[in-house]
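Amino acid chain:
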Amino acid sequence: MILIPAIAAAITAIWFGIGGVIGLRQLFRDLENRIADPLGNGMVTGGVSAADAAKFAEIEKKQNLNQPHK
């Protein structure tokens, strides 16, 4: 009677164990290849992160350079 749940538990533990090892390997591979953003430190000013504010400023600068002067 307890044999079937024990087999199911063993299969589940092995399944999650293999998936966990694969996931951890991928995590460390991704962390190794990560490009760090010095502005991505978690600061938020005016509801916008510092990294996003820098990107928005760069986009606005490009748009202002492409617009003809009146």
In short: DSSP finds two helices and two strands in the chain.
